[in-house]
Amino acid sequence: MNATIRFASLLLGTTLLSLPAxxxxxxxxxxxxxxxxxxxxxxxLGRTCTLNGTRVDGNVRVARAATLLARDVKVEGNIQAxxxxxxxLLGGSYVxxxxxxxxGSSVKVDTAEVDGDIQxxxxxxxxxxxxxxxxxxxxxKSNQHPITGGGNRVRGNxxxxxxxx
Length: 165
Description:
By secondary structure, the chain is mainly beta. The protein is built from one helix and 22 strands. The protein has an eight-stranded parallel β-sheet with strand order 1-4-7-10-13-16-19-22, with no helix packed on it. It has a seven-stranded parallel β-sheet with strand order 2-5-8-11-14-17-20, with no helix packed on it.
């Protein structure tokens, strides 16, 4: 009987090890520190998420009227927001994909490294873009207020409202 239990345990352990890992989407309302997320983060409608030193192996999506405050983060995918209250990407953050922030209010992207594009379209509040390194394009269109900032190093093009940054 003892050998049967050991065999069953071995068989179960081997089966569990061979199962694929599935990425999850995690809702963030509050703060996350220096943790690693194997999947996506979603900031729900009207909520605030603060990421400080967080690693995200997927994307970060910010819902309408929500706020994302991200400092020293590493996001392998994209950061996307439509209709957000505020999005701040600060302090040595890295994004492996694109930063797409549309039809929101306040936007601040400062001292970030972005392998894709930064796209800031139709935002109604203050937009600040300063000292970023962008491998793609820096695109700003139809924002209600003048874009502030400068010192951005862009491999692609600086377009429209961001042409002088």
